[in-house]
Design goal:
This protein is of the alpha/beta class. 39% of the residues lie in helices and 17% in strands. It folds into 2 domains: 188 residues, NAD(P)-binding Rossmann-like Domain (Rossmann fold, 3-Layer(aba) Sandwich); 91 residues, UDP-galactose 4-epimerase, domain 1 (Alpha-Beta Complex), CATH 3.90.25. It has a 7-stranded parallel β-sheet with strand order 3-2-1-4-5-6-11, sandwiched between helices. It has a two-stranded parallel ribbon with strand order 7-10. Helix 1 links the parallel strand 1 and strand 2. The protein is globular, with a radius of gyration of 19 Å. The chain binds nicotinamide-adenine-dinucleotide (NAD). The site of nicotinamide-adenine-dinucleotide (NAD) has 27 residues, from helix 1, helix 4, strand 5 and strand 7.
Length: 316
């Protein structure tokens, strides 16, 4: 049955895992595609069917009767993309293959995940969808490529309805510690340290993962905008996040690290189109509450496992 079946690429990952569980809870039949190239923090729980393979190995049978595809699978680390840029070309090729398959089988709707990183250092804040694309990393450049493939399908006759969702910074339980919030939580727990890159005044538009997932599930129910920002519309600095965690552990040591290459000073979403498309959803999680919940999730984990995870991310 068309409307009820969902396929989520990257569905064993951080956002995809939360989305898969939410869609199952809403009564959808969910298939997850993930080759587990990065070990998930939370193992797929069996409520969704796992197709353990790369997107490039999907075939028409895998898409049969799917009503909506969420294409989240991606290499996504900004620093790693400077060291291993060729790996990131897979982001573009996978999107091309998936959209060709969806066109072939007549999949009605596809949501393609992109990122605020495509704006680079935006001259307008909050940044609307029409702002120029100025990527500052190989990762962001491949997401521009992914968007261009998606845009081409938006213009092609017989292609699915394709919507590009530009996520800002999503955080919460289940994210690997190569990203800001989990890295701070994990380091605080096992080293009593809070590593801060640069001066910590770089600002991000943070969304707690379940809030982002609610927005994504809403996209399944109405027409898709060609491109929509998925963010909170507010920005906080890294130092703001550190201050929330210092309330938990006032004697934690802030450890200064070198700034990243091409670090962006601020991301902040213009959310007018998002609100037009899916409404102004009530009950969004505050930064302090979201950070506390994320920290509590980390605090429930085995310290040995946290150290292993940190070591893996730091040596990559
Ligand atoms: N987390 C954020 O703050 C954020 C911000 C902006 C954009 N995004 C985008 O959202 C999407 C999901 O991000 P996430 O944080 O959940 O990432 P994640 O790394 O936790 O999950 C991605 C998953 O995709 C899988 N994968 C990658 N390439 C694949 C391929 N070709 N075939 C099969 N599986 C593949 C990985 O094994 C992983 O499980 C990505 O497209 C990312 O670029 C995320």
């Amino acid at each position: 049955m068309y409307d009820n079946k969902v396929l989520i690429t990257g569905g064993a990952g951080f956002i995809g895992g939360h989305l898969a569980r939410a869609m199952v809870a809403l009564g959808y039949e969910v298939d997850v595609v993930d080759d587990l190239r990065v070990p998930p923090m939370v193992s797929p729980d069996g409520s969704a069917k796992l197709l353990e393979k790369p997107v490039l190995d999907l075939d028409e049978d895998d898409l049969a009767n799917v009503g909506i595809v969420y294409h989240l699978a991606s290499h996504k680390s900004v620093p790693r993309s400077f060291n291993q840029p060729l790996d990131y070309l897979d982001n573009i090729d996978s999107c091309r293959h998936l959209l060709a398959l969806c066109t072939g089988v007549g999949t009605p709707k596809v949501v393609v995940a992109s990122t605020c990183e495509v704006y680079g250092e935006a001259s307008v804040l909050p940044t609307p969808e029409g702002a120029p694309l100025a990527p500052r990393s190989p990762y962001a450049a491949t997401k521009v490529g992914v968007e261009m493939i998606a845009r081409a399908h938006q213009r092609a006759e017989g292609a699915p309805e394709v919507g590009i969702a530009r996520f800002f910074n999503v955080y919460g339980p289940g994210e690997r510690p190569d990203e800001l919030v989990p890295r701070l939580c994990a380091n605080l727990l096992v080293r009593n340290e809070l590593p801060v890159e640069g001066d910590g005044e770089q600002r991000r538009d943070f969304s707690y993962v379940t809030d982002t997932v609610r927005k994504l599930t809403e996209l399944a129910t109405g027409p898709l905008a060609a491109i929509v920002n998925i963010g909170s519309g507010r920005s906080f600095s890294v130092n703001d996040v550190v201050r929330v965690l210092q309330e938990r552990s006032p004697d934690a040591r802030v450890v200064r690290k070198p700034a990243r290459i091409n670090e962006i000073r601020e991301f902040r979403a213009d959310t007018k189109l998002q609100i037009c498309q899916i409404g102004d959803l009530p009950g969004q999680t505050s930064l302090a509450e979201g950070i506390r919940r994320t920290f509590d999730w980390w605090a429930d984990r085995d310290p040995e496992e946290i150290l292993r995870r940190l070591f893996r991310e730091e040596s990559n």
